[in-house]
Amino acid sequence: MKKYGFKILLLVMLTSSLFADTQSGLQIWGSNFIDLSGYHYLNNEKDSLKIGAMNTFRLNFQNRNKRYAKIVGNLDLIIPFGYTADQFQDLNDTSNTLSTPYYPLFVYGNTPVLLDIRKLYVSVYLPFADISLGRQIINYGKGVVFSPIDMFSTVDVTNINFERHGSDIAAIKIPFSFLSGLDLITELPRKNHEYSTAVRGYLNTMGFDFALNTIYKHRAEELIAGLSFKGDAFFGVYGELVEHFANDYSDKYFEGMLGLDYSIDNTYIFTTEYYYKNSNIQNEWGKHNLFLSFQYVINDLMNVSTHVIGSDIGQDNQMVIYMGQFFYNILQNIDLITYARYFSYKNDLDIVPDLEYAVRVEVKF
Amino acid sequence: MKKITAMLIFILISGYLFGQNLFLTGLEILQRIDENEFYRTIEYTGTMTIHINDEVRTKKMTTQAKTDGHKALVEFNNPEDFGTKYLMMDDELWIYFPGEEEVVKISGHMLKEGMMGSDFSYEDALEASKIAEKYNVQIARQDTLNGHVCWVLKLDAKIKDVPYYSREMWVDQELYVPWKEEMFAKSGRLLKEMNVLEIKQFGNRYFPVKSEMVNKLRKNSKTVFELEDIAFDVDLPDDMFSLRYLKH
Could you give the count of Cα atoms lying within 13 Å of A359 in the half-sphere of its Cβ? Predict the structure, then answer.
């Protein structure tokens, strides 16, 4: 199935270029970015600098005329080298490929070549509803990092842009007014994996966006109800309140996230999020979690930013990620990003380095 | 008596020679500007050229706007921002980022900040209401700007919710289009200066198609905003300005 899927994708990619310059064809854009990274395992007595690199070719396409329907693709072709390739190999060995977003295409020597199909879906626009089918990023939450309401496309906090991976879904989106509507979404079932169905109603009132979400996790037989909001109260304020009903609705668990953002003169940008999670809920976070972010915009070509993501600080399962980043838009379509990250875990994880520093060069086309 | 009559005749004749605009009040001039610049709907492709130090960055966009309900939809189509969309309704703004399929509501206090890194704020770029409805006006003086005889109007906010507390406007006495504008904070500090570089005639309307904005709070920065393929009063469906359409 995967082989056929990849061949069809390849065919779409190749034939789309034939129509790229016509009004009825496909619009193609994308980027190529390469990360050159150094890793240190400071707790290891034999610590030494390990060098790795990763080249990502990102191709996006969609049809130009979107009046009645939209076909969208977002594909990453990833080639890791050196120690980064070893990390991918470890990831592949410790989990089956279905649980990771990457499709290993082939291995050349010690270099795996991977495909990440982030998006590949079709949407049809009817007068009363939009119908979508395929791999799509479903972005329900309001949080930058913490988003308990997002069951479909969760945030990857190890990605420097906090990107998400797609989910295979079928969706019907029914508008009630210009700023309100109802979404019905179901994940396509996968063997040995959780899949969910959701109903979401959203509206804008009094300057706030509100959404009510009801999600059912089929294999866990768990119902989740949540409210999300975003608006302005001097600060930008947003949040998510989520209640879980598990074990035939006899167990109830609560999750909550509250976020604030503020910008001064478009120069100093602050964001903070606090996320509380009940210990019965199974995910990577602890009970108390915090995200703090500060960005200093030197000018619109350059900025310096730093953020901290902390989970159960001071507890046995503490996890803290510190990151500093410098962004420089060198030319119209070329960005240079240098960043350093420090990972602090009390439970030592072999696969995660203590210190990583990297340079990314991204060329957009 | 004869002298008074002669003086009156002279005033009337010279008033006629000056395009019958000698007796216009500041408010009437503003209303004439609004007649020129105010539209029911507009559609255009725009290019923002942002100059930062010696660097130049270009953003291209298509814009549809409707004054009824103060609605605007902007879609960027330069490769770096491709597919990014802005939806503005009244004083609320949403941005759609296609990469993450994310609709982000922009906090109100951020509307005064630079749109896509330019010197134009969201409010500058998407403002669609009549100036006369928001400002008290008086004629401060006359001035000549690049060979154009202008009134200099002094505008003071008469409502609370305006992007600038006061403005000075150099208005062409023939075309009723501002060639230059200075925007001030309540403290009297000069925040921005806008110069119109090109005006085109569309039927009875004179409309600025190329403007330069300098944000006085930013060092070595200016943005040139150029409009092409402008169409006024085209039929734009209401549902174009919706959260549903934003994700299309």
Answer: 5
